[in-house]
Design brief:
mainly beta
């Protein structure tokens, strides 16, 4: 569930959960980027992604 600050910033209705995403970009053994602050209202987004290996 969102913090009060997240709910206000995202203009969310009461009782709506959020998706909290951690994204890591890795090259070899090095972590190139970590972003921990991606918070999205779960009732307004669709996550659709693919990973080519």
């Amino acid at each position: 569930m969102p913090t009060p600050e997240e709910a206000e910033t995202l203009r969310m209705s009461a009782g709506v959960p959020v998706l909290a995403i951690t994204r890591r970009l890795i090259s070899g053994e090095d972590v190139m980027e970590v972003c921990r602050d991606i918070v999205l209202p779960a009732d307004r987004v669709i996550l659709d992604y693919s990973i080519d290996l």
